[in-house]
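Changelog-adjacent note: as of this version, every example in the card shows the full chain rather than a window. The one below runs 262 residues end to end.
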Amino acid sequence: MSANFSKLKSVIDRIDGEVLKYPLGGFDNVGFFAEVGMPYGSIYGTKFLRVEDPDSPHYGKLIVGQNGLPQATAEQYYLGDQTPRALFGFTNSFVYKNFGISFLIDGRIGGKFYSSTQSALQKAGLAADTAPGGRRDNFVLDAVVQQNGAYTVNTKEITQQDYWAAVTAGNLGITEQNIYDATNIRLRNIQLSYNFPKSIFEKLALQSAKISFTANNVWMIYSKAKGIDPESVFAINSNAVGFENLSFPTTRSYLFSITLGF
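Full-length structure tokens:
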């Protein structure tokens, strides 16, 4: 049995020259930055427009338009960072007579990532979010409408289609909607093996034989990413590893092997 755990703390103290914020990658209104005083990979994007006056009885509520639909902020805001807070792994191996089994469970704690795939699914009406409880009933957002500097309670009924069209408007929509916690735990690897008894090789040049079966990326035990693998990235040549943009699903691989000893 073996285990490992690493705690990560990332803070950018200085960037050469007068640079305080250096772009790492991104697209449209989603940006990833190395920013002085912040963890590596700060994520910036638009948020839902909300009441920001703490003295208002409507503080924190969405501000919708006259049509009852949510609106995005005009500016980009810090929405988290892509750096995990910790990584861990646990390996266990068992042997019984000639049979062996081993498995690796590993995981990541913390960090955020943006999923453009979820945005595309929502825009097309294919995401589970677009049909709560398997239904697409009309609804009224718990929000307010701003008129002449005052807020009134929203009463406009909207459809699921109109809501998600507003949230995903443009290339990537309102960034805040599709920022996800990258925490995940998975069964990374499992291996089964069998060593043939040495007695069957007494009169042969062959001294040993072993067959084994290995599976990798076996099971996502826990994830908050709604079917998107948090390890999926837009491009491996980008430092914006928290940016997932229509990436292919990560693959599961199988390996069957025979080992012979002479």
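Structural remarks: Helices lie at 116-124, 160-167.
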